[in-house]
Amino acid sequence: MATISKPSRVDRAFERLEGALSRLEKAVQARGTAAAEGGGDTAALRAENARLQTVTEEVKGRLDGAIGRLEKVLEG
Residue 32: which pLDDT band, with cuts at 50, 70 and 90? Predict the structure, then answer.
């Protein structure tokens, strides 16, 4: 009489681990592909960030000046 054996808990856990690793590898590959395709976008975003930092510093200077003038007016 032939006996049909079920996989052990360890075997099932190992199969789940292999499946999870496979999904993880696919996700890493997909992310790498997306990053390679979007490489130009990163450069454009960095340039925009630098431009916005410059504008922010200019606005900050203007606001500091305006606050200083307002303080002088309020003091006397």
Answer: confident
